[in-house]
């Protein structure tokens, strides 16, 4: 009977629609249903339909994360949680505990520096979380009771074993077995990131890896079986008591394995982020098209024919949209109606779309008709390699920046060509000086991966008779600008500032608040004297006259006055004084004077920042303090202070983000962009990773205004290009964020997203 069951293939059982973006995670919630997580920032609970048990309906939508949600864990019903509880982890670095009965957040656990990647629940109710910050954390009643560095790079997943021990998988390509904080064993065998883990009952554990394989391990660390069949990154793996294994991959396939052999592959209209088995043997998949699907081998749980047909049609349309013929997208080809238009010359060729294929025709001028040549197919590498330029396919079509304000030029090149001849012909065609030849040749060799190319010693320059330029030798023309790969919006150089202010309005508001304090007997001592108000007016006059900053002064007593107000005045009255300080630090004397108050144990600036962002949130304080910190980047003397306090600043502002308005979001995005420039200059990899995480969280938020999202994307691209976090960004799923941003109607967001996509493709 078992062989008969195994021979039955999985077919569609039902479709769960509701998420508005990629579905990233699945959690089987016992008899209570299925929980799913998504890039749409929600967790959704689906329960079995009372009328049709194989179908599910949406029961609850849990919204509380500020960025995409990934791992999930289930806590069975208890006295505390009569209907059970769900644990979720997000890119917002938070771990949330949800009461399923009420749909409310019971505990909000903060402590991780970067994205939460894995969750497990211990027998005593403790929650174990893994993160891109390389750590594992144990949470008890909402508080972290211990944490430790589990791997030297990002931890991607964690599972609990029946023995009570824990197993982690990491971007370092290893797995580690933990008893408490003690590593009992390190599993080696994968050649790339270990992305997913699952128990294989009675045998050991399964691992899914970016090396495109699934492995079965004994708990001693021995590889028992390797499953090879996926053609791209494997994100998830699951096992059933029947012995079946399921895996999901970037290659868009759910694969079913039996005894190490792939017995079925089910294609999806997007990458398969997660897979899980139901107890009855059905398989649940989470797809990047925002849909959850359940697959079954039982005839009584099959989807309606109409639903199956709709799925097959969706899959066909998706494949059609991706199909290329001769390097061209099939959907971009003209239809048969194009053959009604006569050709212009004999032998002219045209490719048209016929059904799901591209067919080539040649114009026969004698017969005045298009003759069918045949179906056009891609070669083994055509679909993914090479580019078309002026109707001809090349291995590469480079963007070349000559410099000096000249426009970007296109340089087509095939590996089989002599780069020196290509350079000469291209320079003549573009009417550029031949003194650029050596730089063009080196550019071609470096960017085509031909660093070991050996020039022909018999080659002679057709214009000068000289031998070929050899990369690495001195240039003939030291004044020429070397062509280089170009990006339109990255990297960002220099700092952005908020350098305009309504001084009259600021001074008026300070005067108004001062009068309020003076009229209150309990607060009169906090008010300014007439002399203080006069001095403040003089400071504002100096700040207004920017053309004389080189000769005007801001005294230490002026700065002390501002700091005294910021320290003593009630929080609701701080913002106009913060705004004055924001402009004061742009004056050469202002920054130097303020720095004196940050030295030693008594850092007044840090104290004022903490007061400005303290709860309950005062939106005006938060906006002005972010802008003030942004302006500190103007002064090189503040670089050390900005770096030393950067974690506290970002953590505090991240907590305030739910209360941000449009202007605060823009200020925050500007702060992140300035920090990106700074930590790149400092070559601080740890800080770069933290800025990257915050910027990605903002960049993926499509509700942001254009300028805020653009600046966040520029920060991401700059960190990837000039920093040391490109691989981390890819682990953070920057591809999906760039892909979504590229669809923006705003040109600059679309362009910087294209920059990031191109950067991902470069080695």
Automatic annotation (TrEMBL):
It comes from the Eukaryota. It holds the Pfam family WD40. Residues 488-759 form the PUL domain. WD repeats lie at residues 16-46, 62-108, 187-217, 227-258. It is found in: Cytoplasm. Gene3D superfamilies: Leucine-rich Repeat Variant (1.25.10.10), PFU (PLAA family ubiquitin binding), C-terminal domain (3.10.20.870), YVTN repeat-like/Quinoprotein amine dehydrogenase (2.130.10.10). InterPro entries: ARM-like, PFU, PFU_sf, PUL_dom, WD40/YVTN_repeat-like_dom_sf, WD40_repeat_CS, WD40_repeat_dom_sf, WD40_rpt. GO terms for cellular component: cytoplasm; nucleus. Keywords: Cytoplasm, Repeat, WD repeat. One of its GO terms (biological process) is proteasome-mediated ubiquitin-dependent protein catabolic process. Signal peptide: none annotated. One of its GO terms (molecular function) is ubiquitin binding. PANTHER family: PHOSPHOLIPASE A-2-ACTIVATING PROTEIN (PTHR19849:SF0). This is Phospholipase A-2-activating protein.
